Amino acid sequence: MDVRAQVSMVFHLDKCIGCHTCTIACKNIWTDRKGAEYMFWNNVETKPGTGYPTLWEDQEQYRGGWERDSRTGKLRLKLQGKWGTLGNIFYNPYLPRIDDYFEPWTYDYQHLFDTPEGDDQPTARAVSMITGQYMDTIEAGPNWDDDLGGSPVYADNDPNLTGFSEEERRQLREIGRLTFFYLPRICNHCLNPGCVAACPAGAIYKRGEDGIVLISQEKCRAWRMCISGCPYKKVYYNWYTGKSEKCILCYPRLETGQPPACFHSCVGRIRYLGLVLYDADRIVEAASVPDAQLVEAQRSIVLDPFDPVVIRRAKANGISDLMIAYAQRSPVYKFFKLWKIALPLHPEFRTLPMLFYVPPLQPVQATMHNGTYEIIQTGSEGLAPMLSALEQARLPLRYFARLFTAGNVEIVKEVYRKLIAVRIYMRLQKVGDVPEPEVREALRLGNTDPDEAEAIFRLTALPTFDERFVVPPLGREEAMETQFPSLDPVSRNYPTRKGEVGFGFRKEPARRW
């Protein structure tokens, strides 16, 4: 058992209002500069929809992530092997084009001031931020399909609807069934990242103390295999600097005890951050199981931070008592491992993402009858109205199974039964209009109890700032002292050695971490 620590996240989709405040916070801090105009380390997509970049989920086109050899059961990078990398090193055929993102533009506002007086109203024309030339038409943008804008074009082409009949697609477009939800996305900081494996230069690495995946700007050689290797398309190429860039999970903020900017600014308070302990020896095993078992395999490698054996192995690996204590308080551990209501996004990519989503409770099919809004009971299997919400959801369960469980509908059902049970139980506590037999049946179907339902409700609806963001002490000072054991604790100067100029040793005072 090789116990390691990983900063991980949960996004509760029932609470996302699609305001893009998280996107703006990230954009203003990290990608508001030349060459990064089209970069969205954090973006919010409308689902059903094609996402950003367009059709990023289609790995037959982009060849991201890993695939399992059906004969041997072993993993291999879906992009290519070593010889394929060598053959394509100067031409990568599996990259998104600028049109798959959008060509960033601004407007010629100065024209409004400089135009001579005339009969016509002057217009500020769109100007490309890449070429500097006028653009004739603007056909797409990062949030072009928000709120099902252009539904027949964007929502209907969602890759997760593959296999749906034309009749099913038509029903989803009907006014009575039309529905959508928001899917915020950042880098998943995976345990088995495809971007790391795809980089020929070894420029991408995973930090040992917290698992954050970073790109060395010094080592990057702009071959862009990382962009193809990431199935979530969360690595971007800066055309101005000639380097790849990605979400860094605001690690400078984490090192000072603050949550990442997108987490801190979230209006809906959907974001949770915490530390989990996992068994690194079982990564390949968990990523190599058949599709239907991927979610449970990933849950199995997340370890119980209260287990004495896990604690002993963690300490042997250099994980401090304080880090273990923070792992025990982690909201991510509760949502993903303990309560089992958070799921990874597209586990079939086999990167073992460490960002988990609590799926949204969908509106149900209903009708007006004698002035009362009533749930349609067709096909509800004789369940009480609130319990039948699962069968009457506007989006089919297999859509969420395609999104979160590699097609395993039963796991999605278990999650929704528990979420519905919490809703019914709290309705009894707060409103008191649900019969107790129905509440007991809901708790039984949801495989939960009143104490767990209350705990889920409190962490979902009433969490404090410190309960949502259990930012671990990353121990940067200890890490620096390990790297520089002869560091003078008084002067805080880096040591110097003869003949080692250029090896990273500096005479100036060290920055305080």
Task: Describe the secondary structure blueprint for this structure.
Blueprint: E1 3-12, H1 21-30, E2 43-47, H2 59-62, E3 66-68, E4 75-77, H3 82-87, H4 98-101, E5 105-107, H5 110-114, E6 126-128, H6 166-173, E7 181-185, H7 194-198, E8 204-206, E9 213-215, H8 225-229, E10 235-238, E11 243-246, H9 251-254, H10 261-265, E12 271-279, H11 283-287, H12 294-301, H13 308-316, H14 321-328, H15 331-338, E13 343-344, E14 355-358, E15 366-369, E16 372-375, H16 397-404, H17 409-430, H18 436-445, H19 450-461, H20 465-468, H21 476-483
Parallel strand pairs: 1-14
Antiparallel strand pairs: 1-12, 2-7, 3-4, 5-6, 8-9, 10-11, 13-14, 15-16
Helix pairs in contact: 16-17, 17-18, 17-19
Which features would summarize this protein structure in a list?
513 residues, 16 strands, nitrate reductase domain fold, 31% helix, Alpha-Beta Plaits, globular, alpha+beta
Would you kindly provide a written description of the structure presented here, covering whatever features stand out?
By secondary structure, this protein is α+β, with helices and mostly antiparallel strands. It folds into 3 domains: 211 residues, Alpha-Beta Plaits (2-Layer Sandwich), CATH 3.30.70; 84 residues, Alpha-Beta Plaits (2-Layer Sandwich); 91 residues, Orthogonal Bundle (nitrate reductase domain fold), CATH 1.10.3650.10. 31% of the residues lie in helices and 13% in strands. The protein is built from 21 helices and 16 strands. The strands form 7 sheets. A 4-stranded mixed sheet has the order 12-1-14-13. Strands 2-7 form a two-stranded antiparallel sheet. A hairpin with a 4-residue loop joins strand 10 and strand 11. Helix 16 packs across helix 17 and helix 17 packs across helix 19.
